[in-house]
Each structure stands twice: as C-alpha cells, then as structure tokens.
C-alpha cells in the first residue's frame, strides 16, 4: 500500500465545495482545511501496483474548483 498527501489550492470561495466533493467520492482517507498557500490537505492510500500520478490526475484534479495540487509521496511512517 502506498500513502501520499495532496495539498489542494481551490478557486476562491470553493474550498468547502471541493472538500465535500472529495469526501463524497470516498477516495481520501482524511481531508483537512489548511492555512497558507494551499486550502486543503488530503491523505490517500493506493495499492502498490497503482500509479500515484495517474490517480491524482484522474481522480483528484478532475474535481471542479481545484486550481492546483502539490503531491507528496511518503515512504515510511514512524
């Protein structure tokens, strides 16, 4: 299983709508609102054989109201 985080920058006034749509899609294990350069932080898990780039491109970035994303792939939890 691969774990990764995606920081999401939303169109102005759309953060709650994006978070709701992301939650409704049931693809993120956790979704947080954040302050700073990005509006949301979401945690995802995919199978070892699944491509993270394709997942983000096809499942996350297609959500209406998302302006930009920044993906952090993780290797080990301590």
Explain this structure.
26% of the residues lie in helices and 36% in strands. The protein is α+β, with helices and mostly antiparallel strands and 78 residues long. The longest helix is centred in the first third of the chain and has 11 residues, at 15-25. The model has no long low-confidence stretch (mean pLDDT 97).
Can I get a quick summary?
It is built from two helices and four strands; from the N terminus they run E-H-E-E-H-E.
* H and E order: EHEEHE
> How far from one another are the termini?
16 Å
Decide which structural class fits the backbone.
Answer: alpha+beta
Please outline the major beta sheet: 4 strands, antiparallel
The overall average pLDDT, rounded, is 97
Judging from the principal axes of the Cα atoms, what is the shape?
A: globular
Helix percent reads 25-40%
Rounded to the nearest angstrom, the radius of gyration is 12 Å
Q: How many strand units? A: 4
Strand content: 35-45%
Tell me the number of helical segments per DSSP (H or I, 4 or more residues long): 2
Low-confidence stretches: none
What's the arrangement of strands in the largest beta sheet?
A: 2-3-1-4
Reconstruct the topology from this structure:
Blueprint: E1 2-10, H1 15-25, E2 30-33, E3 40-46, H2 52-60, E4 66-73
Antiparallel strand pairs: 1-3, 1-4, 2-3
Question: Any key phrases for this structure?
Answer:
single chain; 26% helix; alpha+beta; 78 residues
């Amino acid at each position: 299983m691969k774990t990764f985080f995606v920081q999401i920058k939303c169109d102005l006034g759309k953060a709650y709508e994006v978070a709701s749509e992301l939650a409704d899609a049931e693809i993120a294990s956790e979704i947080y609102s954040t302050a700073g350069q990005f509006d949301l932080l979401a945690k995802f898990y995919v199978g070892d054989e699944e491509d993270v780039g394709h997942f983000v491109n096809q499942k996350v970035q297609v959500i209406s109201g998302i302006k930009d994303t920044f993906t952090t792939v993780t290797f080990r939890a301590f």
